[in-house]
Give the backbone structure.
Amino acid sequence: MDVFDGIKKQIEHRSLLAVLVDPDKVSPNSEDALVDHIAASKADLVFVGGSLIFSDIDGLVERLKARISKPVILFPGLSSHFTPKVDAVLFLSLLSGRNPDFLIGNQVHAAIPILRSGVEVIPTAYILIDGGSTTSVEYMSNTKPIPANKPDITLATAAAAQLLGFKMLYLEAGSGAQHHVPSKTIRTLKQQLSLPMIVGGGIRTEKALREVLDAGADIVVVGTAFEEDASLMDRFCEIVSQHRGKER
Ligand code: 1GP
């Protein structure tokens, strides 16, 4: 079954946890332990990516795939991050921004190599929401996030994504954000739209995790919190696997 079909089937019953692995934050010394930990965990998905990557994405994905049976999904910051070794690619367009390079430019560069590789593509509308500090994605994409207190703007942007035919929404506060995407925003989108929702950025406590789950996140992405304290992964997996959303 395709990765996206599998995700859709699973989120009918419960939300999923994606562990974000940023290749530049994995050192040769820590890689083995991290891969073992993810492999043994109840995490549902592995996202690989970052705004700025200098290390060997291809090699890391190969090593992850050799030892982890969960889907490994590329979450690229640039067209040059593409690797055909993944199970699927989030084909992102940064719809909250007005920088043509991230709306369509990188996509033009990546489209033919991706098509030729035959890798599964998941067209995903990427929506950056202010998380209380300037994040790498904001700086590197040279775009402004949507203000956190303007859920109507986020809703209108996400509605446009749905009408344009995207298959998923990624509501992003940015890696290491001070505040995660507001629950009110997630709830509003959940009530009014039908696209599956990925939510990430700044989710580092159990309370934050429960808030985004209760609001209706279908996939929760966590990177920084696990980089800082790997033992959180098991606790977070437990919470996500037992959670039954209020709206479900
Ligand atoms: C970033 O949404 C992801 O793109 C995860 O963010 O690193 O803050 O968990 P964190």
Remarks:
- The radius of gyration is 16 Å.
- The chain is about 45% helix and 20% strand.
- The beta strands are 16-21, 45-49, 72-75, 88-94, 120-128, 168-172, 197-200, 219-222.
